[in-house]
Amino acid sequence: MKYPKWFPYPSAWLKAISLLIYLGFCIRITLFWGVMGSGFSLSIIPAALGLVCPFLLIAVAHHILLGKEIAPHWLPRWASWKTALNAFIVSLISVGVAVAIVLPLALTEPAYFSIQTQTHWYTVISITVAAYLYHYDAWVRQRRLRRKLGV
């Protein structure tokens, strides 16, 4: 039995879940430091760092764990930056789609959508959209490889 082409591969689900867990962890840290700061300017700095730092860390971690060149070791190569940019785009799209679906439902029927229910649906939708985006990325890479090989 062949794996269905329309359903994301397990690797896509794993990437989506790990990305959103990592993003949630970074958001919690950012919110903590934003609350600790007093004043508007001090809460803007952690918010900006909270948006940029997770993806810089993804690029560095990808370079250290999967990088093939070691000189200079601290500077990520293009493939690592591409992975971080892909993670940033996937997270923006998946969060945007989840908010676009859950927010109108929460505003129209607030009695049925508690905070816990909203968080549950937001998480499920975000992970599903991210998995399909990673699946699409894998499909595009396979298609490019087949064209390059002439298959």
Overview of the structural elements:
With 151 residues, the chain is mostly helical. It has one domain (10-149). It contains four helices and no strands. Helix 1 crosses helix 4 (115-149) and helix 3 runs antiparallel to helix 4 (115-149).
Topology (SSEs and partners):
Elements: H1 10-36, H2 40-66, H3 78-108, H4 115-149
Net shape: flat
The helix/strand class is mainly alpha
Number of domain modules: 1
Q: Sheet with the most strands?
A: none
Q: Care to count the β-strands?
A: 0
TL;DR?
This protein is an all-alpha fold and 151 residues long.
Search tags:
single chain; 151 residues; flat; mainly alpha
